[in-house]
Amino acid sequence: MARLARLELADDELDMFTGQLAAVLDHAADVEALDLGDVPPTSHPYPLKNVLRPDVVSATVDTAEVLGAAPKVEDGRFRVPAIVGEAP
Amino acid sequence: MSEWETVIGLEVHAELATETKMFSGAPNKFGSEPNTNVDPVSLGLPGSLPVLNEKAVELAIRLGIALNCDIRPSVFSRKNYFYPDMPKDYQVSQYDEPINIDGFLELPDGTRIGIERAHLEEDTGKSTHVGGDGRITGAQYSLVDYNRAGVPLLEIVSRPDLRSAADARAYVAELRAILVAAEVSDGKMEEGSLRVDANVSVRRSPDDPFGTRCEIKNLNSLRSLGRAIEYEANRQIDLLEAGESVRQETRHWDENDGRTHTMRVKEEADDYRYFPEPDLVPLDPDREWIEQIRAAMPVLPAERRTRLAAAAGVELPHDGVTLVVERGQDEQALAAVNAGGDPARVLVHIEQNLAGDGGADLAPGRLAALVALETGGTLTPTQAKEVLAEMLTSDAAPEEIAAAKGFEAMDTGDLTALVDGIIDGHPDEWAQLAEAHAADDQKKLKKLSGFFTGQVMRQSQGKANGKLVADRIQERLQT
Amino acid sequence: MSSYLSARELAAGVRAGEWSAASSLEEYLGAIDESDGEVHAFNVVTADDARATAAAIDEAVAAGRDPGPLAGVPVALKDNLCTHGVATTCSSLILEGWVPPYDATVVSRLREAGALIVGKTNLDEFAMAGSTENSAFGPTRNPHDTTRVPGGSSGGSAASVAAGFTPLALGSDTGGSIRQPAALCGVVGMKPTYGRVSRYGLVAFASSLDQIGPFARTVDDAALLFEVIAGRDPLDATSIPEPVPAVSEQLDRGVEGLRVGVVGELMGEGIAPDVAARVHEASEALRAAGAKVEDASVPASIFGLSAYYLIAPAEASSNLARFDGVRYGLRVDAPNTNDMMVATRTQGFGAEVKRRIMLGTYALSAGYYDAYYGKAQKVRTLIIRDFAAAYDRFDVLLSPTSPTTAFPLGDKTADPMAMYMNDVCTIPSNLSGDPAISVPYGTGDDGLPVGVQVLAPALGEEVMFRVAATLEASVS
User: Fold this and answer.
1) Which H helix or E strand runs over B66?
2) What are residue C44's phi and psi, to 5 degrees?
3) Which residue from B63, B200, B211, B294 has the fewest beta carbons nearer than 10 Å?
4) Among C65, C67, C172, C156, which Cα is nearest to C118's?
């Protein structure tokens, strides 16, 4: 899980988290036990659909301002250390 | 050795021809200075939110109609994975409820290829690798440009219905023609507007279950697509014939060495944790809108081919017709025919002589006038081609250009005398020809009349009209 | 002294030229200067910007122009709202040095309304937790008793209003992060209907639950601020198109004939007796004012906490992926990008954030989605149905806001489950998307403020504010 979330946990942290996560999931067990076969899921509390915007260009942000806030830049681009592996 | 069957399914990513990005008003433009076509949304800045581009939806519906898909209510999901060219470290994509499903595409030869889905998603940014040989492997570091991040894409997934590299090429060519005709995408493979991944597997017999497939990436042209599929199919066949097995993996096509190479093996860690994108609401285009879009659809390549073939009096499938339609010059051809040009000659000229720069801009009326000179005997095909080339850079009438070049039809009397002279100079050949004529030996007839026509052409330095030459030969044979 | 004026009175005086925005601002800045060292409501005070704005407003008034309904009113912003040119930290190390190149929609609306933005307030890192102790910059203290927490996660905003640093503040509420600190600090705090207020520029915690809302000393001021920030925003696809009612104009209409239900499930186990007693008194006050008060039931609300602690971390695990050291904020160097991302996130996020990211990653992972996230989304449907059934019988519902009054600093930091229980009364309306408001209603046995929560159906802000105003009037 930690690897998937790009986090590294020390052993004591891992122990603590495992216990705490277990407690939360234990509490979630009452949800797990519910029979909800016919109940549809809700992802949005307020039902809207087809919210669209016109295809019209709007303001961009200032490139210098954005690059100025970046940890490392080169040639107008964001610089990162070597990338391991192609994108999936 | 047994006959192997190659099974191919294609995933084509097409960048949509919108003014702005999928989820924000930043420009969707190729070739700008790095990180200039960006706003909070395309950079994934904290607090930014996506709002769906209406035009992108319209283009998705257009493609759905063109590919005979079922156009459905759809939902965007987040595909979660960390990668530096992805500003939010998740990609917004339609996952289990795509907008278009279950369609088909008909190749020019009539074969139907199933379309599993054509869904909307956002593009990623672009990395440049520094150090090493410029490839990701061995690079010292990379530079990321987010101009492309958030550009709207349609991912068009075919069913594994393709059976050869040639079919795969025909499929992509036809899909590109449809995308361009429907103005969904500019279809430029060289600018990355159209990107193809191929899933390739092989099996000994069409009755066998599908073999283990490999996904091939980095196919930047129709040529690489064809070569990569052929290479990959042979690689798999070699493995299987050697008693080894094919490993399911993603492979990278290397244009330079003409091989595919292992890129990544499917890992258990590939857990994208898809869930419905909470920042967007469901999309459920109403029927009225879809019908409006359908009514405004431009004529698609298949129908245009039928129309052109009918006008030109040729049978489908016809390479010239396919090519002219693919290049979008069928309207030009039809107009030239309407203006009185001989259909077959119009088609030949557009296919062969108007393929280059400016060819598509030649006014149909002028093309018709040129063809009239040709069919009327004033110009030979070779001369017509030369005049046509000059018409692209000059406004002068074809007659004037022909005159300036000294292209004049031979006097009929001179031509008759020339033909007769050649016949008389080759009595043996003529006797054979007459014999073939009497025996109705078409093959021999054709060969020998070709000999006489060739002689006439050589001696007239190409000025003789082939049709008149043939007429005179006929006349002599009758007497 | 303007710090005793309501925001509405203050703005009215500025607009009428009775006093200057510049001079009243100095009184507030003085209060901050004097006491924020102890309270630590603010991560940053933008005094110079506020002074410049105040001067511009005074000029506008002198020139006969109207600077807007919040003319000259100092407002504090929770530090997870993007402000162009002013650092936005979410009280996290991972956003170190980041200055947004854009304003949140609510910030633009405040500027257009003539408000003075005086600073960014402390919060639990990325708005996760309920005590404002989980901040990379140290805890905020409760102005009523500085040994106690102000609640959270919008503890800095609640404390700013409670301490008289600003008449108004904005917070964000994902599971009670406005209402709970409002209750603990003795101020009014309100979560609008989901989608009423644009989330554009709010650094997301859990997108389907987050709402921005007002803090104020009075219900009327909360209504005023709500009216300024609410309304459809084309930059937020989830913002709702319905027009915003003029809630302020309806505050005096009283509660005669309204049907009020006291939610049984939120009055039982875990609710401190003194808190429950204040809720009963509140219901009696409404009855006395002419409302019909009865017991109500929202059965599925007991599953709210469980569903919330699956949905919110799941969405958070995805929302917080972008903090990867590539484009902004902290970067911890490493030889390759993957290791750099891991090192950056490991060093940049605090324990509570990591805990929730882990929990959310787990809840969304392939083998567990259906059992956890999928199921929680279904529970959400049940809660919405049960609320709908309750609103067939009642116009509004009543409950405690927080099970207890403000607890001592450090009391619950070691036990996440105990901390999570704080939100038991507030979470259901985040899951249902309905509006809710916390109104101060007397004190507990310890002399600390108690808040009563008024819940209303979606888009029911008008009746909710009316009931809140009646409650407020009945306290004193």
Assistant:
1) helix B54-66
2) -150, 140
3) B294
4) C156
Catalytic residue selected from C24, C131, C160, C177: C177
A42 in contact with B, Cβ within 8 Å = no
Beta carbons of C303 and A34 less than 8 Å apart: yes
How far apart CA B64 and CA B104 sit, in angstroms, is 10
**DSSP result, C149-194:** ---SSSHHHHHHHHTTS-SEEEEEESSSTTHHHHHHHTSEEEEPPT
Active site residue C153: yes
Prior bond to C157 cis, omega within 30? no
Question: Which are the contacts of B98, defined by CB distance < 8 A and separation ≥ 6?
Answer: B72, B74, B117, B118, B119, B120
Structural domain spans, chain C: 2-250
State whether residue C336 sits within 8 Å of chain B by CB.
no
Which one of 3.90.1300.10, 3.40.50.1240, 3.40.1160.10, 3.40.640.10 gives the CATH number of domain C2-250? Answer: 3.90.1300.10
Give, in order, the Cα–Cα distances in Å from C224 to each of A45, C6, C116, C218, C322: 25, 11, 15, 10, 35
- Best of A13, A24, A66 to disrupt the C interface (most C CBs within 10 Å) is A24
Residues in chain B: 479
Sign of CA dihedral B142, B143, B146, B148: negative
Q: Which uninterrupted H or E stretch holds C125? A: none
Q: What are residue C214's phi and psi, to 5 degrees? A: -90, 150
Mark whether C207 is an active-site residue. Answer: no
pLDDT at A32: 73
Say which residue the tokens 């550009």 belong to: B151
Encoded amino acid at C93, one letter: L
Q: Which of C84, C120, C337 to mutate to test the interface with B (most CBs of B within 10 A)?
A: C337
Q: Could you give the angle at the alpha carbon of A80 between the alpha carbons of C207 and C200, nearest 5°?
A: 20
Instruction: Tell how strand C74-78 and strand B275-276 pair up.
Output: unpaired
Count CA within 13 A, CB hemisphere, residue A85: 13
Among the listed residues C24, C78, C399, C429, the single catalytic one is C78
Separation in Å, CA B15 to CA B78, B215, B218, C307: 19, 21, 16, 39
Query: Can you list the domains of chain B with their CATH numbers?
Result: 5-294 (no CATH), 301-396 (no CATH), 412-478 (1.10.10)
Residue type (1 letter), B87: P
**ipTM over the 0.90 cut-off:** yes
Q: Flag whether residue B281 sits within 8 Å of chain C, measured between CB atoms.
A: yes
Domain boundaries, chain A: 11-35+47-78
Distance CA B171, CA A23 (A): 55
Angle at B122 between CA B201 and CA B57, to 5 degrees: 105
Q: Which residues 138-167 on chain B approach chain C with CB closer than 8 angstroms?
A: 142, 144
Residue C177 is among the residues annotated as catalytic for this protein: yes
Q: Which H, E and C letters describe B178-197, residue by residue?
A: HHHHCCCCCCCHHHCCEEEE
